[in-house]
């Protein structure tokens, strides 16, 4: 294959560069940012993502900057009662052959960049819609992709929710690491440890101030401690007619942004990258049905998370209580 140009040095673009390089195809990554992304918040990497990254030889480097949560616990907004618990840790690793990790985004991007040959990533190199390098152009330039904009005329649309994010100090006696999700009417909170900090994400339709004041005191206090949190309005896009046109192909959020409620956006970008480097011609057919299922589950997950108290919410809680690791097989295996 000819040399590949990749627009966007995020999780998807850098993983694609590594996957192409593993197959002997040289790449150049054009990243708009003039410098590596600073700090940044946490990210969950489920086994379907770590399997790809470990396969690219990144296991030891990732392990050094990650936490292995023992479980994901779903809790009720009002009293913190545990509605359900999915074991992660050793159980997930044994079942899926790859671990569930949490880490800082900047560390993930650092591990990916460090594994690339020097000079692969060109920082301060924004790509616009007229960019047509020789060979293949991969649009991995995220939600507001310029590469996609040159192919299709649609725009991202706001889904009505904002994610408020913060990194908080770890409690003095944090106990085993756990991903905790508190569910309530029209809003939810996610907390998980990354090395040296607790990553908090509070999702609500309106301002953060006052949104969680009536919640169980420990989660209310976490949200209070997060203020002033960094706001991230949540957008998505309709599925494009195709992910590929001639020598231009899209991956990750540029192709299929999704609400973050399943913690799968970056994981799917990573899966895309591996599939693209393996078989350009079969890429979209191989990936699209799975991605559409994940997008649909993310949308449905948001609706389920935010049910008001009542019969539908109680049926949801029964499903959560009955759910176990095997129910995640379609996603993580
Ligand atoms: C609150 C929140 C929590 C999330 N949590 C998780 C999680 O736990 N697990 C998970 O898997 N996913 C999660 N996601 C989703 C995940 O962040 C995205 O799906 C993922 O970052 C997409 O990766 P990407 O490489 O496609 O795009 P991006 O990460 O957006 O990267 C695009 C890159 O392209 C660059 N760029 C943009 N325009 C240009 C241009 N014109 N020229 C050159 N470069 C350009 C950008 O600077 C950026 O570096 C979360 C999302 C949100 C909002």
Secondary structure blueprint with pairings:
Layout: E1 4-7, H1 11-22, E2 27-30, E3 42-45, H2 47-55, H3 59-64, E4 66-67, E5 71-76, E6 82-87, H4 89-96, E7 101-104, H5 105-114, E8 121-122, E9 136-139, H6 146-151, E10 157-168, E11 178-184, E12 187-194, E13 197-204, H7 217-226, E14 230-236, E15 244-245, E16 248-250, H8 265-278, H9 283-305, H10 311-322, H11 329-332
Parallel strand pairs: 1-2, 1-9, 2-8, 5-11, 9-16
Antiparallel strand pairs: 3-7, 4-7, 5-6, 10-13, 10-14, 11-12, 12-13, 15-16
The structure holds flavin-adenine dinucleotide.
Question: Could you characterize what this model shows?
Answer:
- The chain has 333 residues and is an alpha/beta fold.
- The protein has a single domain, classed as FAD/NAD(P)-binding domain.
- 34% of the residues lie in helices and 25% in strands.
- The protein has 11 helices and 16 strands.
- Strands 6-5-11-12-13-10-14 form a 7-stranded mixed sheet.
- A hairpin with a 2-residue loop joins strand 11 (178-184) and strand 12 (187-194).
- The longest helix is centred in the last third of the chain and has 23 residues, at 283-305.
- The protein is globular and about 60 Å long.
- It starts with a strand and ends with a helix.
- The mean pLDDT is 96.
- The structure holds flavin-adenine dinucleotide.
- Flavin-adenine dinucleotide (FAD) binds at residues 7-13, 30-33, 43-44, 126-127, 140-142, 146, 163, 165, 201, 232, 252-254, 260, 263-267, 269.
